Amino acid sequence: MKLKNFLKKAICSVPIVVVRSILLLCIYLSLGLVARAATQQRKITVSGIVTDSSGEPVIGASITEKGTSNGTISDVKGHFGISVSSTAILQISFIGYRTEEVTASPAKTSLKVILRENSEQLEEVVVVGYGVQKKANLTGSVASVNFKDVNTMPVANTTNMLQGRLPGVVLTNNGAQAGKDTPEIRIRGVGTLSGNNDPMVLIDGVEASVAQIAQIPAGDIDNVSVLKDAASASIYGVRAANGVILITTKRGMESKPAISYSGSIALQEATVLPDYVGSYDWAKMYNDAQGTDFYTPEMLQKIQDGSDPDHFANTDWARELFHTAAMHQHHLSVSGGGKDTHYMISTSYFNQSGILKETGYERFNFRSNVDAKLGIVKIGLNLAGSKEKTDAPVKNITGDGLMRALTWYTRPTVPVKYSNGHWGCVDGTSISQTVFKNPVEELYQGKKDDYSYHFDGNVFAEVDIWKGLKFRSSLAYKFFMNDVSTFVPKDMRVYDADGNVLNTMGTNSVNDYHYLSTTYTNENILTYNVRIGKHEIAALLGHSVQAWREDLTNAYKENLSTDNLYELDAATANPNATGSAAEYALQSFFGRVNYNYDNRYLFEFNIRRDGSSRMPKANRYANFPSFSAAWVLTNESFMRM
To answer: DSSP E strands: which ranges in 533-600?
Structure first.
């Protein structure tokens, strides 16, 4: 009690002017923090030019907003423009140069960035076809990304991390549906006017698809190399016509066990939604378009005052379909090893709720890379797999689906649901509304289970035969299975707001889809590297054989006894079953010779002979050679003066 009375007297004895000053100071600081937060959220457009130390423009330099996937590249004159937050840090990088960081601000939106040569970076190696080379000794066009600086970015699709980071590589997002958002990748433009323009993708030397890049957790990727021209990609033959993407996953090193965890939680929302007019304005415009009062003055009054929401609603259908959704991912890895054995084991979990209601994507991953050295023999085992679940409505989203229903067939005067619990389909007019479709109702109709399973295994052995002479043999197995079960309910009755049955339609059905593909690949490669004085020679000779098969079955039946059963045997009408299979084999012989004289004159020759079982015997094989050369002018004696 004494302490309480003391504090009371002390507070009361403080002059009112002091109290007022403290309050004003608190208000000032609060307003300052709010203003600062608002400034940080404001977007600004930053433009500039990127040059080297001699003032020449740097074409294709990567400009990215640090900590995000927002990026662009400089044009043929070195110019760039990018929209970023007002306090963003820009990272400007290009192969062979030091990365520069510049802080943007509303007062600093025009930049001139000078990139300095990075001699240490030129000594680094990049992954090329069936091996690695020093950046300084490349004669072909190769770009690379080290994932150490970007693997913590909270993106839904790993592929998007390449956006703006690789000159000549363009990513185009064709959609944002959770689990089906793999972007289109084009390397130096479109290679053909018809057919597949996707680049060839190899993960740890094993062929994969562009879609499979998205299934690799960013925390598992060590680096990505892109072979962009014929000189660098011809070692992979006909399948490299659209360029090659080489992905190398992390491996263990000699160290104590290191445990690493990374995770992120993010919120997503639609950046742009249609801004529709309200029901009142829409009804008046409808009357004007028809030249008559379908919506009478009494109806317009009900729309305006909202007194009869069952018959005259004010529905924003876009806002009813989309919402703010959460996304979180977690990655846990253990790596290490002794002098002769290294390991890296990881597991990850990813969960994304779609911004479109009733959509989502969930994935579990595991990966294990183990190496062991037994004398002159090195053996390794790579295992990786994933299980995916994609949530989506039975009704298609694109095409003549939900988005078409939203933009063509809705009207704001119809409610999402009536107060009697039935889905909204008509308003209170006598207008024929048979074309109306309720896209929210179609989100919840039926049941769709979509599961995918991946497994990749690769075992290899490498023998040091003699100084500089190595032989490597590997056997890879790939497995992919996709099961989709789709149930469409009866949807027999459509009601109005008063509970009257307007019509009956449809019958229930079930469809089961099963897809399975397997691939076996065996490669045998002999390499030899030797240096004699100023002469350095590297040679490679290899053989590859690949066998692929797919099996597809589809079964369909109608008229299930109840909407609570989703199995084929519960249906009794219109059975239909189809099945198909396809397979092919490839055999290839390939070789490469690199010659380097005094780090000044570089020559490279590649050749591959591909044979495919899909071609007639008389024309089964074809050759794909390439030759490239480079002159490192900066290593000449007259350039050092």
So the answer is: 535-560, 571-597
pLDDT of 590-621, one tens digit each? 999 999 998 899 999 999 999 999 999 889 99
3-class secondary structure, 592:
strand
Q: In whole angstroms, what is the distance from residue 99 CA to residue 92 CA?
A: 6
pLDDT at 3: 40
One-letter amino acid of 548 = W
Give yes or no for residue 229 having a pLDDT over 90.
Answer: no
Place of tokens 């892109």: 226
Residues 223 and 200: their CA atoms lie apart, in Å, by: 16
Residues 6+ apart with CB under 8 A from 267: 324, 325, 326, 327
Give the Cα separation of 622 and 368 in Å (integer): 37
Rounded Cα–Cα distance for residues 590 and 606 (Å): 8
End-to-end CA distance of the chain: 88
Taking the C-alpha atoms of residue 473 and residue 462, their distance in angstroms, rounded to an integer, is 7
> What's the rounded Cα separation, in Å, for the pair 72 and 93?
11
Burial of 90 (0-12, 13-18, 19+ CB in 10 A): buried
Q: What is residue 41's predicted lDDT score, i.e. its pLDDT?
A: 52
Contact predicate 247/216, CB 8 Å:
yes
Question: What pLDDT is stored for residue 552 in this prediction?
Answer: 97
Cβ–Cβ under 8 Å, residues 271 and 263: no
Rounded-to-10 torsion of CA 69, 70, 73, 75: 160
pLDDT tens profile 539-554: 999 999 999 999 999 9
Of 630, 620, 625, which is closest to residue 608 (Cα–Cα)? Answer: 625
CB under 8 Å to 539, separation ≥6 — which residues?
527, 528, 529, 591, 592, 593, 594
